[in-house]
């Protein structure tokens, strides 16, 4: 049980870093700081929002993405894997909708912003993969 929670935390931190990079490079993807103070004096509220949105994305990747990959498998095969990028964008848009329902500040303007945001997020997560793998394996 604790190993699973540790892996979720490690993946959420990596995804939060990737989400921060996305907000730097894609103008249509923004995260607003909440109006109310979440913790302490409010200086860490932005980081907490990034972590919360990242946890939503990680959970969607764990629970919803396999179903979408299975449904989209024929199209993914025909497009030689490029449709997987569209699935990532849909997951990103779904994360925006859920974060809006939870009162978190993720906002995505257009589908293309979601598409490029998902591409950048995948690249950053790929670069951070070895580091998160080391952290996950040390816990075992």
From TrEMBL:
Cite the InterPro entries for this sequence: Phage_holin_4_2 (IPR007165)
Which keywords annotate this record?
Membrane, Transmembrane, Transmembrane helix
Q: Does the keyword Cell membrane apply?
A: no
Instruction: Provide an example Pfam family for this protein.
Output: Phage_holin_4_2
Is Calcium included in the keywords of this UniProt record? no
Q: Where are the transmembrane segments?
A: 12-32, 44-64, 71-94, 114-135
The name this protein carries in UniProt is Phage holin family protein
Q: Which organism is it from?
A: Corynebacterium occultum
């Amino acid at each position: 049980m604790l190993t699973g929670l540790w892996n979720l935390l490690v993946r959420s931190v990596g995804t939060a870093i990737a989400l921060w990079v996305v907000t730097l490079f894609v103008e249509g993807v923004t995260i607003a700081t909440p109006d109310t103070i979440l913790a302490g004096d409010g200086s860490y509220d932005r980081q907490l929002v990034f972590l919360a949105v990242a946890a939503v994305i990680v959970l969607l990747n764990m629970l919803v993405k396999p179903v979408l990959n299975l449904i989209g498998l024929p199209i993914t095969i025909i497009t030689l894997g490029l449709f997987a990028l569209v699935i990532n964008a849909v997951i990103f848009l779904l994360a925006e909708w859920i974060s809006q329902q939870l009162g978190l500040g993720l906002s995505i303007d257009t589908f293309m912003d979601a598409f490029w945001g998902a591409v950048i997020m995948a690249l950053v997560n790929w670069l951070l993969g070895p580091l998160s793998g080391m952290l996950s394996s040390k816990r075992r």
